Amino acid sequence: MRKVVRNGVFETNSSSVHTLSISKDGMEESYLHVDSEGYILTDFGSFGKDLQYYTTQEEKLSYLITCCYYLGGWDTHMDNCYVFRKIEKAICEYAGAKGIKILGENEPEIDHQSQPNSGWDLNVVNGYNGDEVVNFVFNKFAFLKTDCD
Questions:
Q1: Rounded Cα gap, residues 102 and 69, in angstroms
Q2: CA–CA distance, 142 with 133 (Å, rounded to integer)
Q3: 60-63: long-range contacts (C-beta < 8 A, 24 or more apart)?
Q4: Among 6, 26, 32, 112, which has the minimal tally of Cβ within 10 Å of its Cβ?
Q5: Bridge partners, 147 (sequence order)
Q6: In angstroms, rounded to a whole number, what is the distance separating the alpha carbons of residues 71 and 124?
Q7: Torsion angles phi and psi, residue 47, rounded to 5
Q8: Residues whose CB falls within 8 Å of the CB of residue 138, separated by 6 or more in sequence, listed in order
């Protein structure tokens, strides 16, 4: 394990921690559920302060979709959400799907200290880098860890 020393970094006393760990090795085929019409089915998730590791493609996609909700532009089908459309494009190209349908059975929840906002600069969530989105969701070595300090 490599120790990282961070100098000159803005710090807060937030009690929640969400960590994305991404490796460049370990890409897998898509195991996401695709309906008979060719759409990936997913839903919002609940990502809190508890110590959890989210490792499946479904969990990681749910995290991205839940972040999209907090980044704004939400309507019933996320039709007007630019961030969602960018993520959807990258995921669907890799998985060979037509689009993503959000079931809407779960309420989106991210711990209040970790909620993304328009100033959040995490390329995986912002979707400006399709390779990072695909690597996060489909790489078996990439995972999301939630925790509380």
A1: 11
A2: 11
A3: 60/136, 60/137, 60/142, 60/143, 60/144, 61/32, 61/91, 61/100, 61/137, 63/144
A4: 6
A5: 17
A6: 13
A7: -125, 100
A8: 27, 28, 29, 30, 57, 94
Amino acid in position 49: K
Task: State how far Cα 91 lies from the chain centre.
Answer: 11
- Residue, of 123 and 39, whose pLDDT is higher: 39
pLDDT tens sequence across 54-105: 999 999 999 988 888 877 656 555 666 777 888 899 999 999 999 999 998 9
Cα distance between the two ends of the chain = 20
Written as one string, the DSSP assignment of 65-76 is: HHHHHHHS---T
Using an 8 Å Cβ cutoff, are 21 and 142 in contact?
yes
Token pair, residue 47, equals 């990502």
Residue 67: what pLDDT?
84
